Amino acid sequence: MPSFVARRSQVLRRSAASRITTAFRVDKARNFGSNPLTTTAQPSVIGQLSTDVSRMSSASHVDEPEFWRQLAPFRDTSRDDFLSWEWNRKKVVETTPKLYEFLDAVVPEMVPRAGGIAGVQTRDEFAEDVAGGIKRSAMSVRVMPSVLSMMNWADPANCPIFRQYVPLKSIMIKDHPNLKLDSLHEQVDSPVKSVVHRYPDKAILLSEIILFFYYDQFLTRVGANTNLVIKEPTKLSRERLLGAFAYIESQEGLKDIIISGGDAYYLPAHIIEWIGDSLLKMRNVERFRIATRGLAVAPNRFLDTNDHWTTTLLRLSDKARQAGKHFALHTHFNHPNEISWITEKASRRLCEAGLTVRNQTVLLRGINDDVPTTPNFVVDLPQGGGKRLACSFDSYNRDTGVSTFRAPILKSKGKEGKIYKYYDPLKPLS
Questions:
Q1: Residue range 292-300: average pLDDT?
Q2: Which residue range is the domain that position 215 belongs to?
Q3: pTM for this one?
Q4: Number of independent structural domains in the chain
């Protein structure tokens, strides 16, 4: 990309986004038509906290355009290649030089500035904005080809997909004064390596450190080091997982296990099956789920017949059903524009095989922080208070943006009767 790096100036970093769980529904996948770069999906809102994708109709009502060919780097990419997991892995943009090269190929000479900042900017000015954002980001940039193909490159600074994956210096604001890198106290609630045990009946099994995307400051335990954060190495090992299994099996009250990380999509198929089989053998475990953003960022893989990850996932689902236990896939869409015909076909394959799919969303300023896009949410309380419905606060001060909550189910480690404070994100500086 251009030689703009030396021209960076100091800027306030953005505040960390509030974490939420929510659901939205799109009645049709994006219909790209003749201009995929300017289409905006119109979501229909449902007033519930989770969506069971298995209720989707098995009939397809959308066209299947090769929308990725609209971008110069993918213009000669065949349908078979684009749907190939191996091709997607090779084409992932995960280093700064690769990102600058991609921006140079797809960003027009002039583009609008981010919302709230008047006027337009040159491609070089936009690239400089990106460089400044990366320098001050807590997470490294890693973007899959499927995601890059869905972005609105005519107006990237205001694209709800682009803004999730690539930081912009111009829209960063000062961190909240109460920000902590481990704000959810996951290390405090980790009795053994690779396990976070906060609720009496639920625990997280941390199985992998690779993450598909993001520069969210709360996700400081995953991804590569950045200028801002040096992260504790958490290499996957058999010994570490065996220790985690032993702890989970020793806790009679543990019924529900979330396999997370990073992203379980990067776990080899045989490791996924080994973890699943190990949990299925435990008498105390009644439910387990795999957390991955794969369906949102690389749905291609679910359709790749040469890749064994999906067949392994579905085989685990069958094993759980036969054992009388519940198994689900938890995915992560933040905006309806992330849904394409590939997403629909991938979801249909899963639901027709009987796999339960649920979605979790993060509330992000300027991306989905409006009622039509995100109607309901829960807050993840700082200091290990866990998830609570946002409307269940004990008190809320609109002037200070501080709300208080209780978590009656949490009684150990001095949490019984504890009052938790939750802070609204800071407003942008004028």
A1: 94
A2: 195-423
A3: 0.73
A4: 1
